[in-house]
Design brief:
With 305 residues, the chain is mainly alpha-helical. It has 3 domains: 126 residues, Lysozyme (Orthogonal Bundle); 63 residues, Membrane-bound Lytic Murein Transglycosylase D, Chain A (Roll); 43 residues, Membrane-bound Lytic Murein Transglycosylase D, Chain A (Roll), CATH 3.10.350. The chain contains 11 helices and 7 strands. A 3-stranded antiparallel β-sheet has the order 3-4-5. Strand 1 and strand 2 form a beta hairpin.
């Protein structure tokens, strides 16, 4: 019995690994068209990819293979092109057939943008994939009561949300990054407080940095104490490893200059913001008085009036 259980667990593990690999291959193949459609129509790339993965069985379904139909879109009255038949809600229903998968992605965008019942979705920010997923279910895209939950899980498991932050001018650039012959980014790495850091230039993005240095996007945001909605600016310092708990020796405190914030000081000295706040008994949005001291290696002394 124990051997049978181990055998079943091994099969399940192999199946899970196989599904993960299939998903990764699918995302690599179709992320570019999903991002392009996002910039053309406003549909989040994460949502498009998640729907493609779910509806096509990671690109392995009958519709995907025989009809290049990755979204399960039926013919309806407006369709005058080729089709295939498949049992679905009713026997032998007609499903759209495309010349290639790219046509399927473009028609998916057209399908959502041309029907009134989906209009409300385009008032939702493209970065809010959870509202989009729930909105698709509400609008009746699928009959599965767990449809929104399944989309959200795919997006979070595969970290598809990272593609919602890709700028229009970055679409082609992200495919040109090659660690073996493109040394421009690695040449720009500096060291602050014994931690590698890069200063953002025009055209850089968190996505490009994460892909070039093979750092998970979540980790990159965490290292720099940012959230995904934060806008990264030109000349901003972005650390490639977690910052230290205090500044380097010889920097006991910082004299506040015009424009300094607790966060900018944390980045300047390569130390964690929460420690600066704790050492100086301040909040993140505290307005720093010019000329005051911000302590970097331990608690600020108490001042009694």
């Amino acid at each position: 019995m124990r051997k049978l259980l181990l055998f079943i667990l091994a099969l399940y593990s192999l199946s899970a690994v196989g599904q993960k690999t299939d998903r990764q291959k699918y995302v690599r193949k179709f992320k570019k068209i999903a991002i392009k459609e996002m910039h053309r129509t406003g549909i989040p790339a994460s949502i498009t990819l998640a729907q493609g993965l779910l509806e096509s069985g990671n690109g392995t379904s009958f519709l995907a293979k025989k009809a290049n139909n990755h979204f399960g879109i039926k013919c309806h009255k407006s369709w005058h092109g080729p089709y295939v038949r498949l049992d679905d809600d009713r026997p032998q229903e007609k499903f759209r057939k495309y010349k290639n998968a790219e046509q399927s992605y473009i028609d998916h965008s057209r399908f959502l943008t041309s029907r009134d019942r989906y209009n409300f979705l385009f008032k939702i920010k493209s970065s809010n994939y959870k509202k989009w997923a729930k909105g698709l279910k509400k609008a009746g895209y699928a009959t599965d009561p767990n449809y929104a939950h399944r989309l959200i899980k795919i997006i979070e498991d595969e970290k598809l949300y990272q593609f919602d932050n890709i700028g229009k001018n970055e679409i082609d650039l992200i495919y040109q990054i090659n660690n073996t012959n493109d040394i421009a980014l690695s040449d720009r790495v500096e060291v602050i407080n014994n931690r590698p850091v890069i200063r953002m230039k025009k055209g850089d993005s968190m996505f490009i940095i994460s892909k070039y240095f093979k750092i998970d996007m979540d980790d990159l945001f965490s290292y720099n104490e940012l959230i995904k909605t934060d806008k990264v600016k030109e000349n901003q310092l972005i650390f490639l490893k977690r910052k230290k708990r205090r500044a380097a020796r010889g920097y006991p405190y910082h004299l506040v200059k015009k424009g300094d914030t607790p966060y900018s000081i944390a980045q300047e000295y390569g130390m964690r913001l929460k420690l600066i706040l704790r050492y100086n008994r301040i909040s993140r949005d505290y307005k720093l008085p010019e000329g005051s001291r911000i302590y970097l290696r331990g608690r600020a002394p108490l001042v009694y009036k």
